[in-house]
Amino acid sequence: MKPSAFSPGVPQPDAETPLLRVAGHAATILLRRTAQHNRIDPDDLPVLMDHLAAVEADHAVRVLVFRGSGSQTFSSGYTVEAILSRLKERAFERFLDRLEHLAKPTIAAIQGGIYGGATDLALCCDLRIGVTTSRMFMPAARFGLHYYQDGLRRYVGRLGDTAARKLLLTACTIGADEMLRIGFLSELVAPAQLDDTVTRYVEQLAACEPGAVAAMKESLNQLAAVDGEVLRAIEARYLASLTSEALRQRLARRGSSGTAAGTAAAPPTEGSS
After folding, report:
1. What span, in angstroms and rounded, lies between the C-alpha atoms of 267 and 135?
2. Nearest to 126 by CA among 107, 147, 98
3. Are 122 and 108 a contacting pair, CB within 8 Å?
4. 209-261 pLDDT per residue, tens
5. Distance (Å, rounded) from C-alpha 96 to C-alpha 92?
6. What are the pLDDT digits (tens) for 14-52?
7. Contact, 184 vs 122, CB < 8 A?
8. At what angle do helices 149-159 and 161-170 cross, to 10 degrees?
9. CATH classification (class only), 19-254
């Protein structure tokens, strides 16, 4: 489903910040930094939070769809330079937690590669529709970064322990078939079928009673919750990694200020580790 109208009352700041559009019962947030693999910059996060609030408040909207511009990459995640300069602000984490607990159902329409923190963005969505050219890659371990606690919870809760360990500990790339097999994708289709498939899911979700959908979504989130003491211990290890010398040195060696955390100079090749 392609968006066709701007959401009224929501500012659309410039040509690269995420865009919110509404068409019928569906709202779409489009990531628009095509030349940078649709990376998410720190200044995008307040815009994204405003978009989520607008979607929540619009009673005509039943479903939110996330898309990336272009045909190559859904998103390459959070900007690398922010890992050292601004990640402690936790704004990216707060955005993802807000998305996960949005009362309305959400769909990630993954038209290509998906890397870094964008993989967690997709895991925050209730449904993830990918295409046969999709691939995913979580590079945190390569940087020397311990992933944040709610990201780990979602990886294990959505994908299972075995798949989470493979992706997080080896930083390998996997293709579309494996993404479907481990449950990262809800459905896998040919690229030409993506729009029609997303439209079908939007229509199915919109036909359901919104109160029941919201209640069941929150119940499923609660069933997947992790004990608070465990989360605090994980958070302590994550925060320690943010100030580690290993992280600083590995990011400095990249020499790629402004590059998103999920990409290298070129997107990783299939099966890389």
Report:
1. 10
2. 107
3. yes
4. 999 999 999 998 888 777 777 667 777 777 777 777 877 777 777 765 445 55
5. 6
6. 789 999 999 999 999 999 999 999 999 999 999 999 999
7. yes
8. 130
9. alpha beta
This prediction's pTM: 0.83
- Token pair 């050292």 in the structure block, residue: 84
Going by DSSP bridges, is the β-strand pair 19-23/26-31 parallel, antiparallel, or unpaired? antiparallel
The helix/strand/coil state of 106 is: strand
Domain residue ranges of the chain, discontinuous segments joined by +: 19-254
Own/partner contacts of 194-198, CB < 8 Å, gap of 24 or more, are: 194/109, 194/111, 194/129, 194/131, 195/1, 195/2, 195/109, 197/129, 198/1, 198/65, 198/107, 198/109, 198/129
Rounded Cα gap, residues 19 and 47, in angstroms: 9
Q: Which spans in 76-132 are helix H?
A: 80-85, 91-100, 117-124
Q: Which of 158, 118, 148 is nearest to 136 (CA)?
A: 118
